[in-house]
Structure formats: structure tokens, C-alpha cells
Amino acid sequence: MKRSNQGNVSYHHLIRGIVLIGLALLVFKLLVTNHIAFFIAPQMVRFIYFSFIVLLILSIILILRGTSEKNHYSCHCDGEHTYPTSSFKSIMLYGLFILPITTGFLFSDNVLDSSVAMNRPITLVSPSQNNNTIRAAQNSTDTITVSDRNANQAKSISDNSNPSSAQQEPLSEKEYSSLQNQLEATNHIKMNDEYYVPIINILSEDLSNMIGKTITTKGFVYREQNFFQDEIVIARFSIVCCVADSSVYGIMAKGNVAHLPKDQWIQVTGKIDQVKYDGLTVPIIKIKKLSKIPVPENPYVYDVGVQIN
Question: What is the CB-side half-sphere exposure of residue 283 using CA atoms within 13 A?
């Protein structure tokens, strides 16, 4: 790559290096504040760390080129590298990168809410009721013993403490069956974020054995247009990779909820019952106790899936 106007080339190298530093700092901000969890699943964070390092290296290289007195650089390729030929074109080009970086620093990181949920199908029953299959997750190279996982499952049913931010590995079919047996054996199901999606699936698949049990769960208030005033969905967004593939899971609830605004986070305790909705039999909570809660530090749950051997 050879350019006769070295000052113009240096300017573009310098501004591109600054843009990359800005992007790296935005990524750094998300990592330090842990707001990166609002956008991607924990299993993807290691790639963000890698991207952060690459961005820093590239920005340093470009800034060094922009401040170097060397007359030209050659990449020994056949094509000609061109730069914007006017100030207006430069502003338009670099503005496409600077604007989102600036807004990323100036505005708060919002959590997905009802405005997004209303444009996506909400899962009130297990997918297996519709297609008789269990979603298979990708095989993992990490190994976790069944005994350790069963201990964690028991804790998730009986403990309502804050969940770990680490994304769990896919359940084996044996572990999924063990979790189902534990749910059938307990009288009080306390939903834990760690196994939220598998428990939702089991509740709908094995609903006849769950009716009458006490359940405690939390989520944000969501309403379908055809709901009665005393009906809501206690909803959660589930993420596999990032917010782009997020889906909405939830449990219908019935009680004194007409005064609750949409997106209000609540924790409820009640009895499990069943109701017909949209042609399907779905679980519903008859609310006994309800309290408003702040938005959790990590508002999303993760669909770990079931690994089919």
C-alpha cells in the first residue's frame, strides 16, 4: 500500500486507532461493571476478553503508524487501499463507529422487557408437548459427575438464594430424570435461576404430579392481550448465546395483580394448578403471597438444554 499524501494517511491511521481504543474501552466498561451479562451468555464472555486484547493491539499499531515519520507502508497486496477523499466522507465514515461507542458510554444498559417480549412467542409449556422432542445442546468437553450435579439440583429446588452467574453445562438424560424425581418428591418448589428452564419444562410435562404443590418463583410482569385482569405471566428471558437469540419463558399466575404495572419484578408463592390456554393445558400459580423486588443483578436465565446420548 503506497500513498503519496503521507499526512492524509497518517490522519486516517490515527483516527482509526482512536476509534478502536474507544471500542476497547466500551468493552472494558461492560466487563468491569458486569453489564456484559445484559448482552451475552456467560459461556461467551471468554471471547469478549479475547476481542478486548485484539482491539487494544490493533489500536496501538494504528496509532503508532499514525504518529510515525515513515513515508509509507506496504502490505504487498495486489489491491489499492483507498481512504475518504473529503472531510465530509471522513465524518460520515467514522461517525458510523463513533456514534454507537459514544451512546454506549452515555446511556444506561437496559434489560430486555415486555416491549421485546410482545414481539416474541412466550413459552408456557415444554417444547416437547408440541413436537415430542427435547432440545439437544451441544456436547461439552468439560465433565461434571452425576453426583455433583444431583447435589446442585437438590440445592436449586430447596434454596432460593442468588444464583451463580456461571452458565451450567447441558444436563444428561439421567440428570434430567433425577431432577424430575426430586421435583415430584418435594412439597415446595423454590425456582432457582440455575435450572429455571428445565424446571419449567418438567412442570408442564409432568403437570398432573405437580398440581397442589407450593411454588416460589420470581420474574417480571407480562400480560397477553387476551388475559383477564387477575392474570399475568411471571416471565423471564432465556439466553443461549446472546440477546439476539433470547426467548421468553414463564408461568401463568392468578390473583390480585391488576394493580401491577408491566415489567414490575415480583416474587410470588402459591399453589400449582392447571388451566386451558390457547388450546393447551398449562400450569398456573394461584397466588398466596406476592412481593415487589428490584431487578436482579443478572435478570436472565440460561437454557442449558438436555444432552441426548
Answer: 31
